[in-house]
Every structure is written in C-alpha cells, then in structure tokens.
Specification:
There is one protein chain. By secondary structure, the chain is of the alpha+beta class. The chain contains 20 helices and nine strands. A four-stranded antiparallel β-sheet has the order 1-3-4-2, with helices on both faces. A three-stranded antiparallel β-sheet has the order 5-6-7. Helix 8 (about 190-205) packs across helix 16 (about 385-390).
Length: about 525
C-alpha cells in the first residue's frame, strides 16, 4: 500500500505526474485529508490509514490485499473537473461493494488524480484495502467483469463516450509503445502486423495463399500445431523482421485482433481436403524457413478487367449495406474488415511510412472486431476482398481511371459504415472514421495531383492505353480524369509480365529458382 501511494504521489516514470491530490475517498479518511497536493509524507499517512484494518486484524488475502484500478477517458473526450471525478469514483466504489451500502462493513479507499497520462488521457487511480473495517475480506469474485459493468453504467450516467459491449479493439503494452518510440516508428508493431495480416487474409481465397502472401509481405510466420501433430494447424503467430541485434517479437493472431484468430479467418476461405493439404504444406515451409511449397496467384498481375469487376463488387456491397439493418452486427463487421483490408493494401503500396490510409484501415478495423461472433453461418453478401487482392498486386502501369473508381467506391463504403455508427450513437467510431476517411481522401487527392503534374494525361496517351476505344469514349475518359486530377500510383514495382485474367481458375506455377518475389525468405 505504501509503495503504491508513494508512486502515485511521485513524479511518475516519465515525469508525467502533476499536482497529485485526492478527489474522493471514504468519509473517515477524507475527514483528515483534503485535496491539497500530496507529498511523500502525506502519501504515507494515507497509506497507513488505508492499511489500518489489514494491520489490526492480520487478515490474509490470497494474492495481496491492495485493490488498484484506474478509470480513464480517451484523449479526445477532454478533461473532467475534480467534482465530476469524485462523483464518478464514489459511484464506482458503491457498485464494487466497497462502501458498505449493502449492509457489510465498509473498506477504506481513496481516488488520486495526478494529471494526464503520456497519451493525454484524463484519469484517476482508485486505491482500496481489500480488508473491511470488521476484518472480513472484500469478495473479488468476477471483479473484472463487475468493474466493466460499472464503467458502462457510469458512461451513460455522466454522458461520456460509451464503449458498449459490442466491439473491442486489442490494446498494446507500454513496452511496445516504448519500443516504437525508441526505434522512431510511427506505430506499434501490433498495429502494423494486424493491418498486414488483415490485408493478406482478405486478399486470399484459401489458407495456403494467406501464408504465402504474409511471407511475401515480409512477415515472419509460424504455425501452432495440434499436440503431437505436424499435419493439423490450430493457430499461428507472426512477427516483423527484427533489427540487427534484436529478437523477433511474436504475436498470435487473436492477440492482433478478434477477427484475426485462425478459426475466424478460415470462415472466409474455401475449405476442401485439397486446400487443407496445401495449407499444411505452406505452414510447414514457413516453419522451416523454406521457399513456398506451391506459389499461386499472389505472384500474378491483375488485368484491367478485374479492376472494373472488383470496383463493381464494392459498389454492390455498398448498395447491400444500405438495406442492411444496423443490428446485423456480423454483416457490418465483415464489411468493415474487408474495407479495412483494402485501405491497408493501398497504404502498403503508396505510403512509404504508415499515414492517413493506414489510419483509415485501423479505424475501420475497430468496427470489425466484435466481442462475440454469431455461430450462425454468414449470409452471402457482395465482398470487398477482391479490392485488397488487386491493390496488393497493383503496379505503376495500373489503369488511372480504374484506380480513381476503386478509391471512390471504398471511400463511400467507409462512409456507409460511418453512417451506421452515427445511427447507433457510437460517437467514438463516428469521430474516428470521419477524421480518418477525410484525411485519407486528401492524401489520395494530393498524390493524384502530384502524379498528374509529373505525367499529364493526353489523348495520345489514352489512345496508346486503349487502342480499341472510340474517340468519343476516349474524350469522355480524358474529361473525367482531368476533373478528378488523376489517381495515385503505387511506388512498389513488380517485375512480372504474367497477367491474371478476369475469368477462369489460376493454375499454380512452379517457383522460379532464379528470382524470388521476396528475397531472403528462403534463408
């Protein structure tokens, strides 16, 4: 107890603690301590008061007798007053059965406020004794669940952003954040890995292709086998390639996102005995750091026809969403996951470092992660999965008009998801998506303008690109292109002359031993 209070009243690990003081507590303790700034001596006095029952009765509590939790707001919610935090803390401790309102003896507690966190979050720390004033123990059974229920009720009562019980994004640890800062990275590894995995999963038609795409994107991949087996894969882990002198940090699929666990991913892929056998072969190759067992369409360049086909698929998806009830959470989550993957693929191709497109992908991913997924089979709906595939394979020779059409369809789908959140009063998702899609649109428009300045589009260039088109069609395309300012080009070039046609199955080809799409994988 003393160590915790001294820490809360001290400067903090990054000197982020400012003016530590009490905003609430049990009546006996608050009668002796006011809201003056806490120093070390005052913190020790508070700790002794909180510890009195434990010291007097010598009650043994398994796991320790100190209760500590924090209540925090998102940075965009601003700050509350001491009075508001005091009222929230008092209601929270009543709901957690510390105050003795239910007929039991009360337990001693205080709420400490010491400024914003490193991320700008307004918050308080609640510290309590788990030994009541009569020597009995506070019941900690399901305390985590009860605290979440209490927090949801407080969000409604005090008109705060409501997180709800529907969606939940995976968090990251302080160590991950510190590593990103130390290496000068724009985001933590967990977020970059999640975006790449989500994109590769959406771009793939089966599990084997997913493994190959993940490796092609530079990820380290390893399977988790069933006990005593090497032909049954039950999960997976991925990692970024470590810098020299550092070790790889592995993340399981479920720890990246609730929608990225292997069983959840498998619901979106074809499943046959042949595909299962092919998947095991690719997992084994990844585990042994060998070349892909049977490279497939991930090495092929999409045709112009496919751009139009997949853009039309996104348009059909948006029309389907317009008639989808807001309560069909599984359908909206699926649409958000696939649209997030497409934005992630676009970011992968045109952003040297994660920027507005990556931010849009992450905001959409938050809408894709449900706490509980329905057990009923998913209803077939138009898909945006093709967009992720074609954007991953895009080159600087890809058709400008198709690029522009694809982005408009994706942006409109993201706005449809935004409108769903608005209709359901999910204000946090509304604000996040609105800002992210607006920023992504501006980034794409800026990139398009720059490309058009460098390579102005002319009728002669259009005749070369579309030799069979009429003059009227070419003129209409030229007007449309100039009115939009063109379209961004991916910076990554692909050395391939093979073309993925719009129709017909793709037959896997033997790997070229002289050229590998991602040098170093075989090592």
């Amino acid at each position: 107890m003393a160590g915790l209070l001294v820490y809360l009243a001290g400067p903090g690990r990054a000197n982020e603690h400012e003016e530590p003081h009490l905003v609430a507590g049990d009546s006996a303790l608050m009668a002796w301590h006011d809201d003056n700034e806490l120093n070390r001596d005052a913190a020790l006095d508070v700790a002794n008061a909180l510890d009195r029952a434990h010291q007097f009765y010598k009650t043994v509590v398994d796991g320790g007798h100190v209760f500590h939790c924090s209540l925090s707001l998102a940075a965009e919610e601003g700050q509350l007053t001491d009075g508001q935090w005091g009222a929230i803390a008092t209601d929270f401790m009543k709901d957690m059965d510390f105050t003795g309102d239910g007929g039991k003896a009360p337990a001693r507690w205080v709420a400490v406020r010491h400024g914003l966190s490193k991320n700008g979050n307004d918050h308080i720390h609640i510290v309590a004794s788990m030994v009541r004033d009569d020597g009995t123990k506070w019941n900690s059974w399901k305390s985590k669940y009860k605290s979440q229920q209490a927090a949801r009720a407080l969000e409604k009562k005090y008109l705060l952003n409501q997180l709800g019980e529907l969606r939940a994004e995976r968090g990251f640890t302080p160590a991950e954040q510190a590593k990103a800062v130390r290496q000068g990275l724009p985001e933590v590894e967990r977020h970059s890995l999640a975006r790449k995995v989500r994109t590769c999963a959406a771009a793939s038609t089966d599990e084997a292709e997913f493994v190959r795409r993940a490796r092609q994107e530079g990820l380290l991949v390893r399977p988790r086998y069933a006990a005593g087996r090497t032909d049954v894969v039950t999960g997976y882990s991925v990692a970024e390639r470590p810098r020299k002198g550092e070790r790889a940090v592995w993340f399981g699929g479920n720890s990246l996102g609730r929608d990225l666990a292997l069983p959840k991913l498998r619901t979106g892929w074809e499943s046959t005995p042949e595909s299962a056998t092919a998947a095991v072969a690719e997992w084994n190759a990844a585990a042994r750091n060998r070349r892909p067992a049977n490279p497939g369409r991930e090495r092929l360049q999409p045709s112009v026809e496919l751009w139009n086909t997949y853009a039309n698929d996104i348009s059909a998806l948006r029309e389907k969403l317009a008639a989808t009830p807001h309560g069909d959470h599984a359908a909206w989550a699926q649409a958000a996951r696939e649209t997030s993957a497409a934005f992630g693929a676009w970011s992968r191709r045109i952003e040297p470092t994660p920027g507005p497109l990556a931010d849009a992908a992450r905001e959409l991913a938050k809408s894709a992660q449900l706490r509980r997924y329905p057990t009923r089979p998913a209803v077939a709906v138009p898909s945006a999965r093709g967009a992720a595939m074609i954007l991953l394979a895009a080159t600087s020779k890809s058709d400008r008009a198709a690029y522009a059409l694809m982005f408009r369809q994706l942006a409109q789908t993201a706005r449809a998801i935004h409108d769903m959140h608005k209709a359901t009063d999910d204000l946090r998702r509304v604000r996040g998506l609105a800002a992210a899609v607006t920023a992504a649109t501006k980034a794409v428009e800026a990139s398009a303008t720059a490309q058009t300045t460098l390579q102005p589009l002319t009728m002669e260039a259009l005749r070369e690109q579309h030799p069979g088109a009429s003059e009227e069609a070419l003129r209409a395309r030229l007007i449309a292109e100039r009115s939009r300012g063109g379209s961004p080009f991916p910076t990554t070039l692909t050395k391939t002359d093979r073309t993925l046609q719009a129709a017909g199955p793709v037959r896997p080809q033997e790997p070229n031993r002289d050229h590998h799409p991602n040098p170093g994988i075989e090592r």
